[in-house]
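Q: Start with the shorter request: fold the first protein.
A: Done. Sequence, then structure:
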Amino acid sequence: MSHQAVNAAPDAIFEWPGSSGPLHLRLYRGAPEKASDALMVFFHPGGFVVSDIESTDSCFRVLADSCKVNMLAPCYALASDRPFPAAVEDAHAVLTLTHQHRRKLFWKGTQLFVGGVEAGGNLAAVSALVCRDRQGPKLAGQVLVMPMLDASMCCDSMRHAADQPDTAEVAQALERSYRTYLPHPSDRLHPYASPLQASRLTGLPPALIMHTEGDPLSDEARAYANKLVQAGISVDQVTLPPADVNNVSERCEITADDPCVTALSAFLAAHRSPPSSSSTISEKPSQA
């Protein structure tokens, strides 16, 4: 089943107050129950500068239907008009408001997951840090898909990508995004901007981290997974098949039998029950 074969339209559209203005949100109902135990708030990509919430309708619909989970996709503040930390505050505002609006979300208010792709993956990782630091809301898990985690862009895969013709374009786009989102260089090492730079990672929820083979962001995803495990956090790590990383549309295309869908479905099933006390990292090979 391809993503073109499903009804990509959201089931409901809301407007909630963000930290400094109204935010638009889309709900994709995938859970069969009238009130599901789990809700996933999933942040869109776009490098902190573009709202991709409409272009990712198909992706979110496939994820919701295939994983049988209700997904809430919010907009958030975009740079350069509203640079860091505006998007971080919007993300936390959305997570905080989910409990208040749980009936409209067809959610019992029990288990809350956070996830995102690229810039959205950054916000998901940062949200886990912020929720821990502000003592709520409690998260059941975090899902980071090709996340942007290091504004210093020092990982080997990023440096290598900048010198290669097949990846230079996306590496340059990521650099522009970080520069726009973080106009003050001192902010680039802040853990709420670069989670990979965080010195304290204890107390975070379990993580599913996915990276694409050959992608400029792959090494920072691996590095963050390893740091989480060293902090005692349970991590599932999945390597996705190579893709045309310069093709922005391909970086968010998905089908129901995609390894990313399979991994997310398994992760949600595992963490809808009380988490194990053990902390491990497992590398799950993808299937093309």
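Q: Next, the second protein, separately.
A: Sequence, then structure:
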Amino acid sequence: MGVIEATIEKVKQMLVDGELLPGQKLPVERDLADQLGVSRNTLREAVRALTTMRVLQTRQGDGTYVTSLSPGLLLDGLSFVADLHLDAEAQHFLHVRRLLEPEATALAATRMPEPELARLDELLSRAERLAGQSPVDHDGLVDIDQSFHSLISSRCGNAVLAAVIENMSGRTVRARVWRGMTDPGAVQRTLREHRLIYQALRAGDTERARLHAAVHILGVEDALVEATHE
């Protein structure tokens, strides 16, 4: 292990041990370097790496702070990785999503308050209007699709599960799937699948929510396969 990696591990251990807490300002560079037994240049490189990982945040003229360390923040980079894999490997990300999202959707079925159910209905109505336009507004549909699924997963009761699902399908992958639906029937079928998920959530039916989510994501996988082979 190199000296920078070892320094990152030392800072990580301080976080694990509670010596550094979310939102806390780090000691001044000189003092922290002495505490860790490294040079200031080494510490700077470690801080730069931890900032990239969203563990630390540097505020101009104020110092360096620990971020919130929320799962959503730390796992945000997964969507970037997902967007980079537009070939067969993109299907692997969707496979993981198919394993996790139906369960999150089932969990959300008993946790969604009325205002959020109304928000889902509003999103679906907007998507149905966009789908009826010519030409189809694919960018608008991608935005709605992302908002629809994000809102559901955010209500699963598990922040880690929600963050992983949120980042399993980046915007580029979603856009490719929607733009690949050249058949108007495919767009309408996808919107019907969304509507069935919503109805199950509205009814508080965990099993139907789980099954409709699984069928929907399997359809997304199939659409991506078709788009990849075009």
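Q: Describe the second briefly.
A: The two ends are 45 Å apart (CA to CA). The mean pLDDT is 86.
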